[in-house]
């Protein structure tokens, strides 16, 4: 706690100065902490044994105008919120640092994959990406822990995943190019062996044409992107407005109806919208609605995601807690045990999350 005081002091002073107008992004807050830490500890830290923050890849030469503009907005926010509490390098150095953070930052999530914050773990950032990862990164307090989820031979490279692996090959590589500036050449991306199942088409007496399928995939991608924007700009800002949550749920349901004319329920675009709808139901405390969506999601998730996926574990966990809340203890116990089985591999048997879930089982 004493070691962390300079970081707490940095944020507390700025928060007190701005009060309700305090709203820097996660990236800005993380960058401010990095700058403060580099000032206090100019030497390499314990988390930089293999790689220092200053050695992070920035991909500066690959940034388009939009990304450069976003970085300049972040720099302006950094100056606005922290100008009285930080010493800054020049603008060019800040551009590099923000680019490095964007490429190497980690999103910290809880056991249900709800967002907790952002951090950097330099040595962990050394790992390359694969859509067939052999390790998984989880978090315990301020530590990142890396655990094998497959047998790894001596000398074999360790791979993690940088992205959500639910989606088909083209979508995954779009995301990798946009955020990390490379295409993946792992076995799954080369063979595309899971794409047919992930994009499963409804079996009809009059099958949809190839053009209809292409148009529906394009629609699905667009509506998912629009929903993400709406959730980011409205849902986050006006979280207290139930009306907006209902509006988002209506978007999900209308999209599911339209896509469902062509796609099977196990299609990943259907699953994406079901997951968003489930989240809105949880927010407005419609437990039965959330459970209905979760029940549709869990089996295809288990098929589409790799073994020991945190996405599958978190869905079993949510289902277990919903069953318990709705007094279906038998189903709740079964679901929570399925979550624990995955999490004991991904998080380790001694992780506090697992102790908490086991206590939930005992209390019920």
From TrEMBL:
**What Enzyme Commission number does this protein have?**
2.1.1.354
Q: Tell me which domain of life the UniProt entry assigns to the organism this sequence originates from.
A: Eukaryota
InterPro entries named in the record: H3K4_H4K5_MeTrfase (IPR050869), SET_dom (IPR001214), SET_dom_sf (IPR046341), TPR-like_helical_dom_sf (IPR011990)
Domain SET, by residue range, is: 24-163
Q: Does the keyword Nucleus apply?
A: no
One of the protein's GO biological processes: methylation
What is the organism lineage in this UniProt record? Eukaryota, Metazoa, Chordata, Craniata, Vertebrata
Which GO terms of the cellular component aspect does the record hold?
cytoplasm; nucleus
Query: Where in the sequence is the signal peptide annotated?
Result: none
Q: Which organism is it from?
A: Cuculus canorus (Common cuckoo)
Name of the featured protein = [histone H3]-lysine(4) N-trimethyltransferase
Q: What's its catalytic activity?
A: L-lysyl(4)-[histone H3] + 3 S-adenosyl-L-methionine = N(6),N(6),N(6)-trimethyl-L-lysyl(4)-[histone H3] + 3 S-adenosyl-L-homocysteine + 3 H(+)
């Amino acid at each position: 706690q004493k070691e962390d005081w300079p970081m707490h002091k940095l944020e507390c002073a700025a928060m007190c100065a701005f009060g309700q107008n305090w709203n820097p992004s996660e990236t800005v807050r993380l960058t401010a902490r990095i700058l403060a830490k580099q000032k206090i500890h100019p030497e390499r830290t314990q988390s930089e044994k293999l790689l220092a923050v200053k050695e992070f890849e920035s991909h500066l030469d690959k940034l388009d105008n939009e990304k450069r503009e976003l970085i300049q907005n972040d720099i302006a926010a950094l100056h606005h919120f922290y100008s009285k509490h930080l010493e800054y390098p020049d603008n060019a150095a800040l551009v590099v640092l923000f680019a490095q953070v964007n490429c190497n930052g980690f999103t910290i999530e809880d056991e249900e994959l709800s967002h907790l914050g952002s951090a950097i773990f330099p040595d962990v950032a050394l790992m390359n990406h694969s859509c067939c990862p052999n390790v998984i990164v989880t978090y315990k307090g301020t530590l990142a822990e890396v655990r094998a989820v497959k047998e790894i031979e001596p000398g074999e490279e360790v791979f993690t995943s940088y992205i959500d692996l639910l989606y088909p090959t083209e979508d995954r590589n779009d995301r990798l190019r946009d955020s990390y500036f490379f295409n993946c050449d792992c076995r799954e991306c080369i063979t595309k062996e899971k794409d047919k199942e992930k994009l499963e088409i409804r079996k009809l007496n009059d099958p949809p044409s190839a053009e209809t399928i292409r148009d529906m995939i394009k629609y699905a991608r667009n509506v998912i992107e629009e929903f993400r924007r709406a959730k980011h700009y409205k849902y986050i800002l006006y979280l207290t407005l139930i009306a907006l949550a209902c509006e988002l749920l209506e978007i999900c349901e209308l999209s599911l109806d339209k896509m469902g004319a062509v796609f099977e329920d196990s299609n990943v675009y259907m699953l994406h919208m079901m997951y968003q709808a489930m989240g809105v139901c949880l927010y407005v405390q419609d437990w039965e609605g959330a459970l209905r969506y979760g029940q549709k999601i869990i089996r295809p998730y288990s098929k589409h995601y790799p073994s020991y996926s945190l996405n599958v574990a978190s869905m079993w966990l949510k289902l277990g807690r919903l069953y318990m809340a709705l007094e279906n203890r038998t189903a709740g116990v079964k679901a929570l045990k399925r979550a624990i089985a995955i999490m004991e591999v991904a998080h380790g048997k001694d992780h506090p999350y697992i102790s908490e879930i086991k206590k939930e089982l005992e209390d019920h």
